[in-house]
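Batch manifest, entry 17 of 40.
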Amino acid sequence: MKNLEKNRHGRTSLLVLLTVAAVFLWPTGLAAEDGANPTKQRDIVIGAFRGPTGVGVAPIIVNGPVVGTYSSLTVELVPEPSVMVGRLASGEVDIGMVPTNMAAQLYNRGIPVQIGAVTLWGLLYVVGTDDGISDWSDLGGRKVQALSRGAGPDIMLRHILSANGVDPQNDLELDYRYGHIELAQMASAGEVDLAVLPEPFVTQVLTRRSDMRVVLDFQAAWEDLHGSAYPQTVVLVRRDVAEESPDAVREALAAIRAGWDEVTAYPVHGGKLAAEAGMGLPGEVVTAALPRFNARYVSVAESKKQLQEYFQILADAEPRSVGGAVPDDGIYLPFR
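Output type: structure tokens
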């Protein structure tokens, strides 16, 4: 069985490499036949946070740098949002993997960036020990440990509660005192009954406490309300790079897509890659959590409607969450 698993992962990696090669190398063959001058490659730096947002570029980190016809790709792991902002603004990072509302904030601040794709379609869940909770209306009269007052997770929680007939101001108690790391530790220790948590902290809590379970799913609730998943994480491209080197950007996006395809197709393999790449997560946690990452690379051409709707809901609730207003169409990369 181990050899079969190994061979299967090998075939998957080969398939991913061939997929990327079809985008990266085919034009080189044509150029050689025609006697054209070799194409100048552009160095593309992809910035990613440790954790779920960056898991899809783990194959590039482990196997990189990835060299194509038009580009040479490397990944820089960025420690925190403020550093990512600085790297994108200065041009030290050409492509960033960031939360969707952060993309809107950067664009509205005048930083020349555009969304190229959506990669994660929701990581938020309510965990608890009460088997009596099966619907959002069941949270009435309860105390829930929430996250990030006024930010994306809080806006979504309030939006879903209101849509299910629960007044967030008066029908329950929302406690925002703790961040997700501390909250996960408290939930694991049995110090809280109901908590909003993102993956992979959900998996860590479920692993440590046999009586804890996912009681409510933000993603399912959003789909019930809006007919589709919500775009939580995007691939953000500097506009000048896209304009000057569109083929290099296309290659980079193809490599990111292939990376996500690889880690989601084989979670065990994906977990090992994430651990080896230094994502700050044990491989077995990534493997167990990947199904709840809702990871799916979707080009901006195919996800624009969901992005616009998401921006509008965030802006209506808290304009600062998207940098003051819904971004105009200039935020969308104009090619696939």
